[in-house]
Task: structure prediction
Amino acid sequence: MTSDTSEHTGANKGSEMKPETFLPEDYKPAETEPFMNDRQLEYFRRKLLAWKHELLEQSAETLEGLAESARNVPDIADRASEETDRALELRTRDRQRKLVSKIDAALRRIDNGEYGYCEMTGEPISLRRLDARPIATMTLEAQERHERRERVHRDD
Result:
């Protein structure tokens, strides 16, 4: 992040919302507000925490399901089917674990005043993009450039 970006975020350090700041239930960040003000930061913090909570609940359910399904199935076809289901569940669980890690990183960015700014350019990430993908670390344009570069290197 560039040093000029810290000027934009200096007043918004920390994800703890000030007691006098009120966030209505129907609040949606708007382009007309100052970017990453206390209300926007609190909105995204709550959104990230709710998403994390949902993922952790799903993970607990997955683990319970795996523990229950760890029975000895005599039929080889049924056993193969159960093993395939288990592998799929474990892959899903691994993706969720990685997503929780990205959510934690986004929460840290809120805490240190870097949330909402592109890690490549320092430019603000659009509110629409953040609302759709609150763990985004790059503007759409920077993300597209990054993916094009990745594809080129992968083809080598």
Q: What stands out?
A: The chain has five helices and no strands. Confidence is low (pLDDT under 50) at residues 1-20. The two ends are 30 Å apart (CA to CA).
